[in-house]
Design brief:
The chain is mainly α. The protein is built from 24 helices and 4 strands. A 4-stranded mixed β-sheet has the order 1-2-4-3. Helix 14 runs antiparallel to helix 15. The radius of gyration is 26 Å and the shape is globular.
Amino acid sequence: MNKKLFYLLLGLNCLACAWILAVRCSSNLNSGTFYPINGWESLMAYSIWKIQNHLPLYEWPQREPFALTLYNYLFYELYAYLLNRLGVSGAGILLAGRMLTLLFACLGAGVLTSIMREACPEQTRKGTMPLAVMLASLTWLSTSYLGWHALTLRPDVAAVATACIGTLILVHGVAKHSLALVALSGLFFYGCWAQKQSAVTLFLGACLCLLISRKFRSLVVLASFFAIPVLVTLWVGGDQYRYNILIAPRIVGSFSLKAAVSEWGKVIMLNLLVWVLAAVSLGKQVRKLVVIWINGLHETDDVSSALTQCVMACTFVVGLPIATLLLSKEGAGKQHLLEVFVAASVLAFSQLAHLRVLGSKQATQLARFAVSVLAFLWLAYPALQMAYLLIFGSASYGRGLATGQFGLNSLAQLKEGKTPWHVQLASNEQLVERKAVASELASLPKPLFIRDEVFLLPWYATGGRYPAYNPDPIYEEAAVRKGIMMHSLQQLLRQHRFASVILQTEDAALKDALTSDYREVPAPPKIRERGFRLLVYNPDTSTANRRNDGKSGRL
């Protein structure tokens, strides 16, 4: 590996990703209040808004108002607190919440840099800071992996950043024989779970590592300071809380191996350098784990390095089946791989640091050449995104796939004119139209319904009043299929919960609205241009119509 060439390729990758991230941030600041990114952010924004307005966070999703709060409480409380401190509410929740996620991604990159340095033995640690900074930054901020997820109002990034802090504290605690630090680490792992209840891979990897190294006291302390707060939280949270975070995710019982393979394919193809080096490093770690099991952890030359590599190897092994299972669920995305990708990056870094100090044997030279090729391939994707943006300029707004998705059906997507190089949310023309629609919605009677996750939020749909109708479509479809509930929109239309209803002609709910005493009126121009029809409900008119129908029936 030519060190200068390799560092140049990584540096160019960082610059390209930083430029793309800056463009995405600018697009979010410009259009973020009107456009979703991915992951049904409106559900998170609505839950944060409820906390800001001192309303119940967890409700029964199969009962009116049909609100599902899918993730754990600390994510919503943390974001609501920070947004309150920033003076942000209403429409600004989406925009500012995404920027908070970016800050947590930067925090994760900083902590991961320290973890990578801990993974290096003393003899190879010198001079590795630039490599650690670049690799950690590409792990958390690159367009090849997280992409838009670094700017999404979701708990994944903040939760895993919290788990990384817990991992770093654990390494120092075990190395210094400090059970207090181990206990603190357990609380940080709890903080990760309290944001996203499925984010336990780093914790499980840490526990497996302590078990293998026969650090039983540390294992008991770590597990206790994680499990006891978890059990107390589940007990105190109540039935609605437990249903939302534990039962509701299991209602969506459809699994697809093809979906999991597709997500794995995207992450592996675009980040081959990390996965190949992690696999090579894992093979070496297996032998080290056997030695640690036989001789104990503190018999090694460098406890911090051995423990860090042990935790990451165990996380990698434990995380592969967990991540695959999570990815196979309906609605899942590559963000479920974040903990595994963090572990893979640390293992890859330790292998790169080892290659730096090897001699000039032919096998070593071939390995270094292969690493340089992989670094060049890693640069290709952000370079293509930059080229696409530079060629098409503002015309590239909105032309790509909505979240940069590109998987097994890539050829079909290309034939449809779609590309994986979506960098911005909307063009200036699209934004003007969107603002015009929002202005027209503001003049309509409230509450209103429209099939648009952003315009269903309370600052658009209810005039800032509670409750707003913002269901989770994946959960509802599964719940209806299992007979747990009826279609929520159909129920609300029959009960006349909306003053205005905006639907397209082919929407099946249009018939329900018309048979529930809603009457069609001329839609505002921009709404009409988008193919929507406007229906309103007037209690006085509907009552009169029913009376006239009754008189006619008696004649």
